[in-house]
Design brief:
Elements (H helix, E strand, L loop, with lengths): L4 E11 L6 H4 L11 E10 L7 E13 L3 E14 L2 E7 L34 E10 L7 E11 L10 E12 L4 E13 L1 E2 L5 E2 L3 H9 L9 H5 L4 E13 L3 E11 L2 H4 L7 E9 L8 E8 L46 E2 L2 E2 L7 E3 L5 E3 L4 E12 L3 E12 L29 E15 L4 E14 L5 E12 L1
Antiparallel strand pairs: 1-2, 1-24, 2-3, 3-4, 4-5, 5-6, 6-7, 7-8, 8-9, 9-12, 10-11, 12-13, 13-14, 14-15, 15-20, 16-17, 18-19, 20-21, 21-22, 22-23, 23-24
């Protein structure tokens, strides 16, 4: 097999509104310019050689965008080793993508790329990850498999807690009948810790604090009052259920992925929040339509409207399902945090699903501005004339901001945001974003090709600027 790939790409982007629309910049690794301009990208990588027992990989990609100013950056820089189902990756790498388009170069059909916690919406971070690829549990005849990821990273962007560390943990258990049906349960967790605030306060990066982060324990006596009362650092994540049907001609997958930011969310008190995905993937990738995805997003509840306590005046545990009007552990405020005020972002972009819009304050402080929203998303992919891969993305959403800073405040005639109270008036801002993108491959020789890369993008609504944009470029590939 060929063990080396090299590519160069030059893109130009022009928008009617100056700012590029949502899908022109979202899930692009954080390297696209935000406004009219261009992008240059050079990539070289060697993938794993599946024919060997001990395998290695390495990659480098350098990018530079221009939007009136020139912004060079290291996009990826990594190396990795694999032995059977064990893998170690070190450096800056793109995150895993699920629900792929007809060609992997087009990315995912999903808003979250299958992972609400960690899409490719933001720039990469340096770090390492230990990976257990799907491993068959002994004596289960390959029906039961486990897999997971353990990793640590360092933020390198200007942020409120500069130099903050990121701990990542993912674990999955899968039952596969071996014929058609499988079911998978997963936990995806992150923790922000360490770093120095503008006031000079800091959390020391040492083994004791790292152990407390990994085990979800509170801070020692030297920690802040908040970290001593709760767990150390900023923790969040998602719980996942995936059901699949595999056939000789197609794969059909349903996934529900539910975010959480505290124990109430982990205990499912934030139901029905989550991303509900249905994906049909045809094995024949040369069809005009080879895949389709329908996705529903709902993050409105967040365990309730009050965050105070989890026991009543007599010290008894509150049953949320019975005492809906006495919910004292809500306001989960997904991906925001009081101490880590930049939230779950990197270089001003949401690390997870991009519909969690960010904002910059007058002082330049980034935070998640929109974590209460409803959305319907549709994606379709295939090949035009059995030759040119494309994908179409249509996304409609209602955006409500956050509980503490709503885009439109609820009416005073209502008693809150409670979804079971019909008199509550909770208004959001409508937004629609669309994209049609792809490339036309032109063969130059057995190992060289030239792709004409294109994209048409549009935004219309009340949150993002109204804009229509076109992207056009060339990509040279050597394999």
């Amino acid at each position: 097999m060929n063990d080396f790939v090299f590519s160069m790409m030059l893109l130009g982007a022009l928008s009617s509104g100056g700012s590029l629309p949502f899908w022109a910049v979202s899930n692009q690794g954080g390297i696209m310019p935000e406004r009219n301009g261009g992008l240059a990208l050079v990539q070289a990588y060697k993938p794993f050689d599946e024919s060997k027992t001990l395998q290695w990989q390495a990659g480098l990609s350098l990018a530079a965008n221009y939007d009136g100013d020139f912004h060079p950056m290291v996009d990826q820089l990594y190396g990795g080793l694999r032995w059977k189902v064990l893998r170690l990756d070190v450096g800056m790498m793109y995150r895993d993508r699920e629900f792929l388009a007809s060609d992997p170069a087009l990315g995912s059909l999903s808003v979250t790329e299958g992972h609400i916690i960690e899409s490719n919406n933001a720039r990469t971070m340096p770090g390492y990850k230990l990976v257990l690829e799907p491993w068959s549990v002994p004596f289960t005849r390959d029906h039961l498999k486990i897999s997971g990821v353990w990793g640590d990273y360092k933020t390198i962007d200007p942020r409120y807690m500069s130099g903050a560390m990121v701990h990542r943990l993912r674990g999955y258990i899968t039952y596969d009948t071996g014929k058609h049906f499988f079911v998978q349960l997963g936990l995806d967790h992150y923790a922000l810790w360490g770093g120095v605030s503008p006031s000079g306060s800091s959390m020391e990066i040492n083994l004791d604090n790292y152990f407390r982060i990994c085990t979800g324990r509170s801070a020692s006596a030297s920690g802040s009052l908040s970290d001593r009362m709760n767990v150390l650092g900023d923790h969040g994540g998602a719980e996942q259920l995936r059901l699949g049907w595999k056939d000789s001609k197609f794969d059909l997958t349903f996934q529900w992925e539910k975010p959480y930011s505290d124990k109430s969310g982990m205990r499912f008190n934030n139901f029905p929040d989550g991303v509900y995905t249905l994906h049909l993937d045809l094995k024949d990738k040369d069809r005009w339509i080879s895949g389709a995805l329908l996705e529903f997003h709902y993050t409105m509840w967040q365990s309730g409207t009050v965050h105070e306590k989890e026991t009543d005046a007599d010290g008894k545990q509150i049953n949320w399902h019975i005492n809906k009007n006495q919910n004292f552990f809500g306001l989960d405020n997904y991906f925001n945090n009081g101490a880590y005020r930049s939230g779950w972002t990197h270089f001003n972009r949401m690390i997870g699903g991009p519909l969690f819009y960010t904002r910059l304050s007058s002082s330049g402080q980034v935070s998640i501005a929109n974590n209460r929203y409803k959305a319907i998303h549709f994606g379709v992919t295939g090949k035009l004339f059995k030759k040119a891969p494309y994908k179409l993305m249509l996304t409609g959403s209602q955006n409500f901001g956050t509980y503490s800073s709503p885009y439109i405040a609820p009416s005073s005639s209502g008693s809150g945001w409670n979804w079971w109270e019909p008199n509550t008036i909770d208004k959001g801002l409508n937004q629609f974003s669309a994209a049609f993108s792809g490339f036309v491959p032109l063969s130059l020789s057995r190992r060289c090709s030239l792709d004409v890369v294109y994209g048409l993008y549009a935004d219309a609504g009340e949150v993002l600027p109204r804009a229509f944009a076109g992207v056009l470029g060339l990509r040279f590939n050597f394999k």
